C-alpha cells in the first residue's frame, strides 16, 4: 500500500501522487521555458528567462505548496513575495534598457502558481492554463499584425458596445411598461445586445476570413450578417456574368443555411424547451441546406472566381440596432395581439408576415412568448412558417435579380429546403 507523505483532514498526498504531480509541474515549466527561449532566439534579443529559469520557478512554486502544508502559510507567502520581488527586479533592469514588454515576467509568475496548483493535484486546471499561456505567448506577431489592421472606427464601435453593455443596459427597468405586459425594456436591450453582438462578430469574421478565403466561407460568414444581403449581392453578380452563376448559387445557399443556424441559436437562448421541439425540423432543414450547398460547391470547386465583397456597413450600427429593437417590439405586440384575439391562425399568419422582413426578431419573439403560455407545438410551427416565408422572399430576390442559370440552381436548392421545411412543419 502506497504511503502518505502528507495526510491531514483536508489534504492527502501519497508518494506516487507526489512523483506524478512533480513530473507534470516540471513539464509545464519546460514547455513554457522552451517557448520563451525560442522566441528570444528568433527575435535575436536577450532574455533573462529560458528553460532552466522556468523549470526552476515552477519547482519553486511546487515546493512552496509543500511548505504550506509542512511549515505553514507564512512561509509560502514569503516564497511568493520573493518570486515577485526577483521578477520585479528583472523587469526593472530590462525596462531600463528599453524593453518595456512584460510578457515573460508575467508568464514567469503564472508558472510559479502553476507549480503550486500541480502540487495540490489540480492537474487539469494547470494544463489548461498552460495551453492558454502558450497560445498567448506564441501569438505575439499575429496579434500585432491584427491589431495594426484595426481602424479607428472599429475600435470606437467596440468601445461603444462595451459602454452600452456595461453602463446602460444594466440600468434598464426590468418590468413591462405597456398595457399588454409584453414590452420589457431590459429584455429589449438584451435582444439588441445579442443581435448587434452577432453582427459585430460577423463583421470581424468577414474582415479576417471573408475576403479571398473561398466563396463557400464567404457565404457562411455573410449569413451571420444577413442572408438577404448575400442573396442580393450575388444574384446581381450572376446577372452581370452568367458564367459565375454556380459560384454565386453556392454563396447564397450557404448563407441561407447559416440562417437556419441563427434560428436555432435564438430559439435555444430564449427557450431551450422550444428548441427541443424544433430539433427534428431544424436538423432536417440544416442537413438539407448543407447537402445541397456542398453538392454545388463540389461542382465548382476547381473553378476560380473573384469574390464580390459583401457590404457590411459599420462594425456596430447603432441606428440599425435601434431600428431592430423597434421592429422587435412591433412584432412582439402584433404577434401577441394575433395570438390573444385571432387565435392560432392569426399567430401563424402574423409570423409568416414578420418572416418577410426579419427572421431573427420573430424567432426571438416566439421563443419569448412560448415561455408565457404559448404552446410549444404552436410556437415551433410559427418559427418554421416564418423561416419558410423568409426563404421564399430570398428565392424571389434570386429569381428576379439573378441570371437564368442561377434561377435553376436556386429553384433546386431552395426547393429542397422548402420541402424540408414543409416536412418539418408536418412532424412538429
TrEMBL record:
InterPro entries recorded: DUF4010 (IPR025105), MgtC_SapB_SrpB_YhiD_N (IPR049177)
Membrane-spanning intervals of the chain:
18-35, 47-68, 74-94, 106-138, 158-176, 188-209, 246-266, 278-298, 318-338, 374-397, 409-427
- The DUF4010 domain sits at 194-402
Boundaries of every MgtC/SapB/SrpB/YhiD N-terminal domain copy: 22-144
Instruction: Identify the keywords attached in UniProt to this record, alphabetized.
Output: Membrane, Transmembrane, Transmembrane helix
Q: Which organism is it from?
A: Shiella aurantiaca
What PANTHER family does the record point to?
DUF4010 DOMAIN-CONTAINING PROTEIN, MEMBRANE PROTEIN-RELATED
| Name of the protein | MgtC/SapB family protein
Amino acid at each position: 500500500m502506497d504511503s502518505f507523505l502528507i495526510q491531514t483532514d483536508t489534504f492527502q498526498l501519497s508518494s506516487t501522487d507526489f512523483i506524478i504531480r512533480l513530473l507534470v509541474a516540471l513539464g509545464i515549466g519546460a514547455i513554457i521555458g522552451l517557448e520563451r527561449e525560442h522566441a528570444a532566439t528568433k527575435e535575436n534579443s536577450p532574455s533573462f528567462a529560458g528553460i532552466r529559469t522556468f523549470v526552476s520557478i515552477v519547482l519553486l512554486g511546487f515546493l512552496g505548496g509543500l511548505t504550506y502544508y509542512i511549515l505553514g502559510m507564512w512561509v509560502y507567502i514569503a516564497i511568493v513575495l520573493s518570486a515577485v520581488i526577483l521578477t520585479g527586479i528583472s523587469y526593472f533592469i530590462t525596462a531600463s534598457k528599453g524593453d518595456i514588454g512584460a510578457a515573460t515576467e508575467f508568464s514567469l509568475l503564472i508558472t510559479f502558481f502553476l507549480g503550486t496548483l500541480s502540487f495540490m493535484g489540480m492537474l487539469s486546471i494547470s494544463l489548461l492554463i498552460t495551453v492558454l499561456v502558450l497560445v498567448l505567448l506564441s501569438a505575439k506577431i499575429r496579434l500585432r499584425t491584427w491589431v495594426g489592421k484595426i481602424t479607428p472606427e472599429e475600435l470606437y464601435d467596440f468601445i461603444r458596445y462595451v459602454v452600452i453593455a456595461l453602463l446602460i443596459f444594466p440600468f434598464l427597468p426590468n418590468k413591462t411598461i405597456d398595457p399588454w405586459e409584453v414590452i420589457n425594456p431590459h429584455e429589449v436591450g438584451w435582444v439588441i445586445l445579442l443581435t448587434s453582438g452577432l453582427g459585430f462578430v460577423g463583421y470581424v469574421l468577414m474582415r479576417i476570413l471573408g475576403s479571398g478565403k473561398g466563396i463557400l466561407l464567404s457565404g457562411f460568414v455573410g449569413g451571420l450578417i444577413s442572408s438577404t444581403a448575400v442573396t442580393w449581392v450575388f444574384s446581381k453578380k450572376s446577372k452581370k456574368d452568367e458564367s459565375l452563376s454556380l459560384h454565386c448559387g453556392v454563396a447564397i445557399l450557404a448563407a441561407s443555411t447559416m440562417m437556419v443556424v441563427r434560428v436555432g441559436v435564438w430559439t435555444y437562448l430564449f427557450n431551450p424547451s422550444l428548441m427541443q421541439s424544433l430539433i427534428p425540423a431544424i436538423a432536417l432543414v440544416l442537413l438539407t441546406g448543407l447537402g445541397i450547398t456542398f453538392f454545388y460547391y463540389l461542382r465548382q470547386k476547381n473553378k476560380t472566381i473573384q469574390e464580390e465583397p459583401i457590404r457590411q456597413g459599420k462594425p456596430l450600427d447603432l441606428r440599425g440596432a435601434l431600428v431592430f429593437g423597434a421592429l422587435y417590439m412591433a412584432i412582439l405586440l402584433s404577434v401577441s395581439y394575433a395570438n390573444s384575439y385571432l387565435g392560432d391562425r392569426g399567430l401563424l399568419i402574423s409570423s409568416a408576415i414578420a418572416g418577410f422582413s426579419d427572421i431573427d426578431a420573430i424567432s426571438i419573439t416566439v421563443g419569448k412568448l412560448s415561455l408565457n403560455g404559448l404552446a410549444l407545438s404552436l410556437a415551433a410551427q410559427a418559427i418554421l412558417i416564418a423561416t419558410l416565408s423568409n426563404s421564399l422572399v430570398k428565392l424571389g430576390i434570386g429569381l428576379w435579380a439573378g441570371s437564368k442559370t442561377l434561377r435553376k440552381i436556386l429553384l433546386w436548392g431552395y426547393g429542397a429546403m422548402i420541402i424540408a421545411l414543409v416536412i418539418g412543419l408536418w412532424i412538429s
